[in-house]
Amino acid sequence: MATPAKTYSAKDITVLEGLEPVRKRPAMYIGGTDKVGYHHLLWEIVDNAIDEVIGGHASRVDVTLHKDGRTVSVEDNGRGIPVDTIPKYKKPALEVILTTLHAGGKFDRGKSYVHAGGLHGVGASVVNALASEMSAVVRRDGTKWEQRYQRGAPTTKLKKLGAAKGAGTLITFCPDEEIFGDKQRFDAALIADRLEAKSYLHRGVKIAFRDESASPAKTHTFQHDRGIADYLDRIVADRGRTTVPKDAPGFYFDRGGDVKIEIALQWTEATDEHIRSYVNGVPTPSGGTHELGLKGGVVKAVRNYMSTHSLAPKGLQVTAEDIREGLVAVLSVYVSDPQFQGQTKERLNNPEVTAQVDSTIRPALEQWLNENKSIAEGVVGRAVLAARAREASRAASEAVQRKTAVSHRLNLPGKLADCSSTNPAESELFIVEGDSAGGSAKQARERRTQAILPLRGKVLNAEQASTSKLMGNKELQDIVSALGCGIGPKLDLSKLRYHRIFLLMDADADGHHIAVLLLTFFFRYMKPLISERHVYLAQPPLYRIDIGKDTYWALDDIHRDRIVEERAKGNAKPNITRFKGLGEMSPAMLKQTTLDPKKRTALRVGVPGDEELETDRIIGELMGKDAGARFRLITDGVGEVDELDV
To answer: Which residues are registered as beta bridge partners of 417?
Structure first.
């Protein structure tokens, strides 16, 4: 039989009073008792000091991590917490604030604080409840006062310590080991980083951090008169990505009012967007309505610029994500009555802020783009590049999925003459133009480390061909299968079977064209092969020059003429042979000139980070469907051509 349930009556109801709920359920107030919650105690006290800075009442904040690594002090030169008695409670205001939930001076908007990060009246009292010891020293109206507490309860009455110069508040506390355990300590590097961020957000404030837990003690002073403009420069530098365009200045804008908005942003070559947002000086890592406004305003401004200047590419949809790719931004807003999600304030929920930020940044950024056209063109080019990469990745992913549905194993192409080595680091693949040249290359190769894959004729133009046609092309699929690393977003370089990929084509116009077609395919669908420098252009000779008993090899006409001029002596007449193609070279010649690692010459293919946009543009114009763009590019450069091979 089941055991009868125990009686449930009024005597089973527990009412937690004062600060007792905080100690029973600390996660409700600080998010948890781990490292994040441990440091959140300090952020609450720092935010109270910064609120005095926001209100224009303080210009300096000093934070000290004491020698034990567990005790911290925060001091500001603001107005000082009131110490006069609140008649209703018959207690000093200081004691009420530090021992009572929902007690503070930030509920009446605009009276004591116009903008503030601490709004719920629980921060300082929660810290007090979760601290084994806390002391508060207040300088106010020429007098210094002190009161001490343990686990949220006062252990002394408010004491007058004597005369004092200036005003301000000093809070010292130690997190309670009963709540957080005895192993946790404050992270000095994390504190320094957070405090420096505060100094960026509040121009002119001086924040000093003294780390007495270090040996010897260290003091850091943070002050940034350019505010978040300096912060943006630091974030971009820390991320180590080239700006777009290279060394271009960022965009900065601020606006006052009931909702004060400050924005600094810049585009980089990164493949993600990075936004750091703050509300009343408090970081909002989960974003919120202010970030939505920033994202929307940025996208609208860039789209308006593209539309005004007719820069939208034909047949290519540039999405909001494409426009924001590579964006680095700092957004700081000050809201009179912010509605945060939870006590830890990680997300802003005020719906009206989205439109306010959007309508602020859109016209300002659009005007800035029009005034800085070189930067604007780089930003637009960056977005177009992202759109093309996204489309190529999507198409490649669909092709891989279709192919996977048919076969779950890798089938190497039958015409591949593979090498015997299974070590990718020493293995090489030669993609050779034509079966005839492929036959010679197979005989000339070093079988252990060199593989040969012949191609029949010209491959498809990846810039023009439809997705279905491109992914159904046998020549390109043979290349993908031979390499073994996949394609598009699923490309995995750890599965690449050859770390050196040589494009071995005839040394004529047709051969160069085939090489360009392959490079276009790699750039659009297998870009990591190029960015990680796995692709090479083999350099077979176009001429054999025999002068007496000596033989020389020339890559082109200029090279041929130089050899003849330098090497022909006396009456020795050079015997010059021009190869019509790789098939005319014997295996021995091909090995000696092109395949032998000790004698060959090859060009490694790469695109510097600051030239990727220009490379994308040129490939789009030369290889794309828009004949007008190709015509303009050719006619603009016709003066640079000395000789044309037709």
So the answer is: 452
With pLDDT > 90 as the criterion, what percentage of the chain qualifies?
Answer: 50
User: What's the pTM value of the predicted model, to 2 decimals?
Assistant: 0.58
Output the pLDDT for position 359. 94
Neighbours of 387 (CB within 10 A): 19
Residue boundaries of the structural domains of the chain: 20-222, 235-389, 409-536, 544-578
Q: H/E/C letters for each residue in 99-117?
A: HCCCCCCCCCCCCCCCCCC
Of the residues 508, 546, 584, 626, which is catalytic? 508
Collapsing DSSP states into helix, strand and coil, what is residue 290?
helix
**pLDDT for res 16:** 45
Residue 573 phi/psi, 5-degree rounding, is: -95, 125
Residue whose entry in the numeric block shows the structure tokens 């900065």: 252
CA distances from 291 to 42, 250, 320 (A): 26, 18, 14
Residue 341, number of CB atoms within 10 A of its CB: 13
- Beta strand spans in 111-198 (E): 131-140, 143-150, 153-154, 159-163, 168-175
**8 Å CB contact between 197 and 179:** no
Task: Tell me the Cα Rg of the chain.
Answer: 35
Closest CA to 175 of 134, 118, 123: 134
Give the chain's residues under pLDDT 70.
1-18, 102-122, 342-344, 395-411, 457-458, 467-468, 570-571, 609-610, 626-646
The question of whether 546 is a catalytic residue gets the answer: no
86: its two tokens: 């609140």
- What token pair was written down for 382? 């960056």
* Longest Cα–Cα distance in the chain: 121
**pLDDT of res. 467:** 66
Answer for the pair 290, 329: CB distance below 8 angstroms, yes or no. Answer: no
Q: Which residue is associated with the tokens 């961020």? A: 197
Question: Which letter does DSSP use for residue 481 in this model?
Answer: H
Establish whether the linkage from the previous residue to 338 is cis, with ω within 30° of 0.
Answer: no
Hey, which residues does 210 pair with through a beta bridge? Answer: 64, 219
pLDDT at 621: 76
233 is catalytic: no
Out of 269, 291, 358, 506, the active site residue is: 506
| Residue 358 appears among annotated catalytic residues | no
CATH no. of 235-389: 3.30.230.10
pLDDT at position 119 is 35
Nearest to 302 by CA among 367, 223, 206: 367
The first and second tokens of residue 19, run together, are: 């600060």
- Tell me whether residue 506 is one of the annotated catalytic residues: yes
DSSP character at residue 507: S
8 Å CB contact between 576 and 544: yes
Decide yes or no: CATH 3.10.20.600 for domain 409-536.
no
Catalytic residue among 196, 269, 377, 433: 433
**Hey, is 358 helix, strand or coil?**
helix
CATH top class, domain 20-222: alpha beta
- Rounded to whole angstroms, the Cα distance separating 431 from 349 reads 57
pLDDT (tens digit per residue) in 297-331: 999 999 999 999 999 888 889 999 999 999 999 99
CA distances for 130 relative to 34, 68, 284, 317, 527, angstroms: 13, 18, 23, 54, 53
First to last CA, the chain: 98
Q: Which residue of the set 426, 510, 556, 596 is catalytic?
A: 510
pLDDT of residue 110: 46
* CB count in 10 Å sphere of residue 556: 14
